[in-house]
Amino acid sequence: MSTYKEVKKVTTHTLIEMKMRGEKISMLTAYDYSMAKIFDAAKVDVLLVGDSASNVMHGHETTLPITLDEMISHAASVIRAVDRSLVVVDLPFGSYQGNSKEALNSSIRIMKEAEAHAVKLEGGSEVVESIKRILTAGIPVMGHLGLTPQSIYKFGTYEVRAKEEEEAQKLLSDAQLLEEAGCFAIVLEKIPSKLAKQVAEMVKVPIIGIGAGPDVDGQVLVSHDMLGINKDFSPKFLRRYLNLYDEIKSAVEHYVSDVKSVDFPNQKEQY
Ligand code: KIV
Q1: Residue 210 and residue 151: Cα distance in Å, rounded?
Q2: Ligand 1 pocket test: which of 29, 74, 188, 223 has the largest number of ligand atoms within 8 Å of its C-beta?
Q3: Would 102 be classed as within a structural domain?
Q4: 189 annotated active-site
Q5: 52 within some domain
């Protein structure tokens, strides 16, 4: 049973309270002002300026090429749109893996230049020192375990992670480490539902799943996928709520045809 409580501004503390009272957390990616304004009005609890912007906004094959400057630009436009949602920004590949000082400096840039509310980074024990250092500056950190797309060249595929016992045990111990280090929430991507449930029951911080089943504290999807802007990505976990690719294409074809036939602009659409 979950109880829904109206909140004016979602904070990291709100999310922990939501987990405590069994209210599920909604999270969606956002990369620009106009979309973020709609998502905020729709009361999405958390907007993630994900490094998936590298794929869906910049057309790269992986999340690796997007730069810190580009992430800051996306984040700043999302922040300008938001009244209620908590805005979390991904630290892009190459902006935190060097050492904890680099991780802190990149996080400070995101907080200062974009005025974001929190950062997210991928990994467990490998990045725990960086997480602690970022937290010393008072910057909230969200963790990300399971499928970590920034390590695609290490793993070689986007298949379900932690199916084998050894990897599942590493994930459990990483989740514990991230909680102890002070992460306010953890994303679990593409892992067996049973394992995700075990993690959500083991830690007190909210677990947000993507392809991790229903027994976690919240769900996140890439907005371009759930809105059907993107047609060529259809993993089993994705629910499409709209088919915007076809809708936009058809509207634009209509416009092109109206321009060609001089149906647009008509008498009322001119001065
Ligand atoms: O970048 C992103 O969109 C993400 C989500 C898949 C969680 O990290």
Answers
A1: 17
A2: 29
A3: yes
A4: yes
A5: yes
Q: Which of 129, 159, 189, 269 is catalytic?
A: 189
Q: How far is the CA of 223 from the centre of ligand 1 (A)?
A: 10
Q: Report whether pLDDT(211) > 80.
A: yes
Cα(219) to ligand 1 centroid in Å equals 11
The string of pLDDT tens digits covering residues 69-81 is: 999 999 999 999 9
Cα dihedral 177/178/180/181 (nearest 10): 110
- Asked whether residue 1 is domain-assigned, the answer is no
Same domain, 266 and 188: no
155: containing domain? 12-240
Predicted structure pTM score = 0.96
Sequence-ordered list of residues with C-beta below 8 angstroms from that of 158, at least 6 positions apart, any chain: 147, 149, 152, 190
SS3 category, 153? helix
- Separation of CA 80 and ligand 1 centre (Å): 21
